[in-house]
Amino acid sequence: MKKLKTILVLTVLATVFIACDDAEDVLPTFNITNDVSKKLDLSVMANTNGDCVDFTEASTFDLRSNTDINENYSKVTALDINSITWGVTDFVGDDGVFLDGGLLKIGETSFEIGNFDLKASDTANEMFVITDVNKLIAIASEMLPSGSISMRLESRSGSNCENDFTFKFNLKQNVTVTVQP
After folding, report:
1. In terms of Cα–Cα distance, which of 24, 5, 40 is closest to 179?
2. CB 80 within 8 A of CB 140
């Protein structure tokens, strides 16, 4: 009887230890969906003859700035960008200042942002949505290995260029990362 109890206890202990070793293998995959934002502060100085000027601002967009994503990034197996939106806030300058033929570049992927009135866009709280699925996939593929990607806004001020102006260019990505523990 004593031998039977000992064998039973050893069997239970062995089962517990084996089950604990395999616990990581049975934890389910889970997704983290979050908005991650970046702001570019732009200050455009008029030139002395009042001609419109080209301007560029660059930064790095880092998914790992989000705590939930950063804590799990070593176990991320997939990244999906569900949407990218952008808009202008905090415009300070004259009426009728336009972005003229702007280009937003995220990694190696470019988007034309067209012509629009900065002050009117800010006042109306306009948000623009990037919907090209193939471009969203390309950005996600480029971003997955490190969790970060370069971003660059290139444009030209158009009309009413006699005075300086400033604004914030806000970019928001809604992302889903798949984590395999």
Report:
1. 24
2. yes
d(CA 55, CA 43): 9
Under 8 Å between Cβ of 153 and 104: yes
| Dihedral (Cα; 52, 42, 70, 81), 10-degree rounding | -40
The DSSP letter of residue 118 is H
Q: What is the pLDDT of residues 63-117, one digit of tens each?
A: 998 888 899 899 999 999 999 999 999 999 988 888 888 899 999 999 998 888 9
Closest of 172, 166, 171 to residue 90, by C-alpha: 166
The angle at the Cα of 138, spanning 112 to 113, to the nearest 5 degrees, equals: 10
- Reported as a pLDDT band with limits 50, 70 and 90, residue 18 is low
Residue 40 token pair: 């570019």
Contact 32, 67 (CB under 8 A): no
The structure's pTM equals 0.79
Q: How far apart are the first and last CA of the chain?
A: 43
Rounded Cα–Cα distance for residues 75 and 30 (Å): 10
Helix (H, G, I), strand (E, B) or coil at 146: coil
**Residue 137 token pair:** 């996939």
